[in-house]
Protein: Dihydrolipoyl dehydrogenase family protein
Organism: Microbacterium plantarum
Amino acid sequence: MSERTYDLVVIGAGPVGENVADRAVQGGLSVAIVESELVGGECSYWACMPSKGLLRAGAALRAARAVDGAKQAVTGEIDVAGVLRRRDSLTSDWNDASQVEWLQGAGVDLVRGHGRLSGEKRVEVTGPDGSLTTLIARHAVAVCTGSAALLPDIPGLADVSPWTSREATAVQEVPGSLAIVGGGVVAAEMATAFVDLGSEVTLIARSRLLGPMEPFAGDLVAQSLTDRGARVLLHTDLVSAQRVDDGQVELELSNGTRVRADEVLVATGRVPRTDDLGLDAVDLQPGSWLDVDDTMLVRGSDWLYAVGDVNHRALLTHQGKYQARAAGDVIVARATGGTIDDAPWGAHVATADHGAVPQVTFTDPEVASTGETEASARAAGRNIRVLDYDLSWIAGASTRSDAYSGQARAIVDEDRGVLIGATFVGADVGELLQAATIAVVGEVPLARLWHAVPAYPTLSEVWLRFLETYGRPNV
């Protein structure tokens, strides 16, 4: 067994771990990063990038077919092989050589293998060849191992070899039929993608679609899937699963019906990748989410950090990278005796995790949201006003499509006169999101937003319509 010593040891070389490591190196620390799979992590190979690759062709085709003059040029259907080739390009054919090169250029040492905590500031790495290396951290260890798909304990489900998001995004042969269990973002996006790719899709959700979002978001996405030929079964539970003689999966549902499909995708949630991390060696519960403060320091510790999905604050790549920037900087500050800026919105905290998280769901129609929903704001006891607007009424919508449809909602904190949340549903609304996020994070007074003039004719005119709905400020 060999030993190496670094200022910081990072477990997990996905986007989150890479950013923690990079910030620490920029601050003058020596860093080793441990990875048991591909450098670049879930986002690069099995989540964000490949899923958007599968979705883009369908979105582009629908956009062309929605405009007279362009739709006449559309003479065929989606080329599935072309979609998969583009997906493969986006994942670099599941080859992490370029990501490894980036790490080396950044000055971060890569240690291949499975890392486990073996004591305070100690990480034992089992290499692919079975060799053992102990990494000793002078100052900190950062756990950035992410999350994995949850497989619910339903009779027969494990025996039918269900897909998770990994199998769905890495698909090599599109099944003739696909049953999707779940109603969240992964389920909705993969339903959209596989309808585009020609599968007969049945989506089974125990509640409504996109439950944590504004209700109209899930309703519009469910209606679109139905209109495009998918079967959407809401408020329905999966009771059991089995493979039948012809090789298909048969699902028994709580309403007594049975659904058959060539494959079943389970997208019912995530679990932390901490079950084989050696947490018991540092008096933490294996398999648990890691509870952290706003600097990503695990509560009760002065050396262990948990960044990204694994802390269960906001399971989104961009939010994990945001946490990573704060964590990397605060690790440097604590290691070098620097000043800690841990006040709200300080350089060393992830304040935006609390009520200012942006997200785009790449369904048809697209859903973009940030901050509070009406339900979450009321549950928090806020004094709010809800502003709703039909996006089809905006001139910029009519120039994009012959029959644009969409909905927008803003949540206003009446006590402070600021925006605390917004949701947009419609084609291309993801590009509206950063303006909304800036308004929420910056706590921009609505009276000042009257002077942020939206260009005409664009979808951004919705900002003026929100203000007109709210009413002119008293002067």
Observations:
- The mean pLDDT is 97.
- Residues 365-470 form a domain with the Enolase-like; domain 1 fold (CATH 3.30.390.30).
- The first helix runs from residue 15 to 26.
- The radius of gyration is 24 Å.
